[in-house]
Amino acid sequence: MKKKNRDEEGASQGVATAEKNVSLTVNGKRHELLVGKDVNPEHTLAHTLRETLGYTGTKIACDHGSCGACTVLMDGEAVLSCMTLTVECDGKNITTIEGLENAKTRELHPLQQAFIDNTAFQCGFCTPGIILSAKAMLDKNPSPTEEEIKQELAGHYCRCGSQYLVIKAILALVGKGGDLSERAI
Ligand code: FES
Ligand code: FES
Question: Ligand 2: does its nearest atom lie under 6 Å from the Cβ of 167?
Fold first, then answer.
């Protein structure tokens, strides 16, 4: 997972100023946000997604970049939305958990289905972020090893002990079987 520091000044590309709106495409739908009205300079992407745009599938737990619950995809990369300022996201394509289902058939993404089939969560609060990190990984590496899955998901903290079932679900999806003992990420 790619971590960003909220304090890193986004002086480069994609930073909206007070004179410039933030244009965000979320799950294929474009949103124009007025700086100072819809979004304040200190608003995080997690806040904007949940509170302004209603994508509440994105969860906020620690709100300090430590747990991975707020992970979304930005231009295909997994990022911590609680550590990303919305004004840094002008022109970006964001995918939240709501964007994974098939828009026409409303069927779940195979990764979502694999998590259900393998009971890879209990409370489910951290699951959207884990699934999105797993998607970013599989888009680049369609056949990861158990070790690669563990490395990629190491920044996610699931407190209920479902970690080994997460690995099982992903291995089952990529056709490597998921017959794991109770080994944690
Ligand atoms: S809520 Fe963003 S990392 Fe925990
Ligand atoms: S699924 Fe929420 S703590 Fe494990």
Answer: no
Distance from the alpha carbon of residue 33 to the mean position of ligand 2, in angstroms: 33
114 lines ligand 1 (CB under 6 A): no
The CATH architecture assigned to 6-99 reads: Roll (3.10)
Quick: pLDDT tens for 66-88.
999 999 999 999 999 999 999 99
Task: Please identify which residue in the block is written with the tokens 């972020």.
Answer: 129
Domain with CATH 1.10.150.120 in the chain: 110-176
3 state DSSP class of 71: strand
Q: Which segments of the chain belong to CATH 3.10.20.30? A: 6-99
Ligand nearest to the Cα of 45, by number:
1
CA atoms of 43 and 69, how far apart (whole Å) = 17
- What would the CATH number be for the domain defined by 110-176? 1.10.150.120
The tens digit of pLDDT for each residue in 16-49 reads 555 679 999 999 999 999 999 999 999 999 999 9
Q: Which two tokens stand for residue 168?
A: 């099982």
Q: Which bound ligand lies closest to the C-alpha atom of 163? A: 2
